Amino acid sequence: MSEVREGNGAPLPGSPLNKVVLASNNAGKLREFAALLGAAGIELIAQGELGVPEAEEPHPTFVENALTKARHAATLTGLPALADDSGLCVRALRGSPGVYSARYAQLAGGEKSDAANNARLVSALQGESDRRAYYYCVLALVRHADDPEPLIAEGRWHGEILDAPRGSHGFGYDPYFFLPSLNASAAELEPAVKNASSHRAIALRQLLVRLTEEA
Ligand code: IMP
After folding, report:
1. 3-class secondary structure, 202
2. What is the pTM of this model?
3. What is the mean predicted confidence (pLDDT) over 7-34?
């Protein structure tokens, strides 16, 4: 467990981050994050295994939500905690659905489902020629609940929004998210390819650099 310094609550230099709780119960994320962080000697434990319930995500920014989730898990477990928050940001919609990506259709009176979210997205972009968008992911790692210097990392994965779905892998907006450089939608990519190039992968690699700088 990470040691805690007296005074401003910052960690001791070089305090070990060898066991970290992941503030998510998503098995796919746990696998993805554990693979990369394992290489840095960090063991990741899903918060559900430690009896931690999902935290609310009430904030208008990704980073606030990620920090809230990480602090929540650190408070309840006494362990360092890692959280992510992500969403789809569409240029012609001035960044929407953004932080509300999971609830995009629900906020317009629809159901909370990928199909309803995608239907709202396609309809919002009908007739729009600017199809640019990116997936955004922010990661927040707190060494303890009151850590005043959380490690923050972010990733953007740039693409374009299609008006008809392609592919059957992935989740969320993936069938409508086209990567010109790969000539495929995110849902047409093999999971291993998506996991190596996605917004989460970019953010995780940045986090690993930060962790190495700290060591
Ligand atoms: P969360 O950060 O896991 O809560 O994700 C928020 C929402 O953003 C998801 O419910 C999806 O709608 C969207 N999203 C985030 N990452 C992806 C992705 O890799 N593919 C598809 N949709 C995503």
Report:
1. helix
2. 0.90
3. 73
CA 20 to chain centre: 16
How far apart (Å, rounded) are the C-alpha atoms in residues 71 and 23? Answer: 9
pLDDT per residue as tens digits for the range 79-137: 999 999 999 999 999 999 999 999 999 999 999 999 999 999 999 999 999 999 999 99
Residue 141 tokens read as 């790692």
Q: In CATH, what is the architecture of 19-214?
A: Alpha-Beta Complex (3.90)
CA 162 – ligand 1 centroid, Å: 17
Q: Where are the domains of the chain?
A: 19-214
Q: What are the residues facing 59 on neighbouring strands? A: none
Q: Is 146 a catalytic residue?
A: no
Mutating to test ligand 1, I would choose from 68, 118, 173, 194 the residue with most ligand atoms within 8 A of its C-beta, which is 173
Q: Is 115 in the pocket of ligand 1 (CB under 6 A)?
A: no
Establish whether residue 102 lines the binding site of ligand 1, counting it when its CB lies within 6 angstroms of any ligand atom. Answer: yes
